[in-house]
Amino acid sequence: xELPLSNWVSAVSDTPKQPMTPTExxxxxxxxxxxxxxxxxxQQRLLSDVLPAVRPQLxxxxxxxxxxLYNPPLSEVWLEIGFGGAEHLIxxxxxNPAIGMIGCEPFEDGVAxxxxxxxxxxxxxxxxxxxxxxxxxxxxxxxxxxxTFILFPDPWPKKRHAKRRLISPHLLGLLAEVMxxxxxxxxxxxxxxxxxxxxxxxxxxxxFCWRASGPADWRERPADWPATRYQQKAVREGRRCYYLSFxxxxxxx
Length: 253
Known about the structure:
- The protein has 8 helices and 7 strands.
- It is an alpha/beta fold.
- Strands 3-2-1-4-5-7-6 form a 7-stranded mixed β-sheet, sandwiched between helices.
């Protein structure tokens, strides 16, 4: 049974309600720093020598069949936005070798970690975009993505920074264009106020539906949703994690 999102907006949040930030006409950067500690020689080599081979070339048109990004070509492609330390991205690539994975992450350390796994484990089904995911979304062909993951995005907890939160009606509009009808969009967060922001954003995008029928549908992590380092930290620190699954509906509404 599907219930309207409005029935859940207040029910799922454990924090006081916060007013929504107006949609920005220009896209503010939703991520923080790009660089952390100094990279090791091996990491530098991977970024200079391996990354170009697995990076989609946004200066050229996307292939009509997105699976042709891979050799051999693959029939289905999944997308992860903000893969952090790449634990989830690599787990999905290893457990789904017939699926093409595209990971977006602007933080160099995370990209280097993903490249180490790609090289050591011979993962031919991984492509990496080390920059803003919205640029990639505008490049992707329509209805080309079968599943998308946005796991524990930066919550930007200060009120003056809330407009930088990644998940917004604008982002959902971009995702609706590139996701196939029936495609799944998984979102994780451990911040109650961000959860409410997410649900309100989905209320404004009729091309997605949330098929939740009870608390278990957002409190329990599915078996094929491996825990990330960030999620484990949230649990250790006593924060409740929310696991949301939306679906792209057929047609335009």
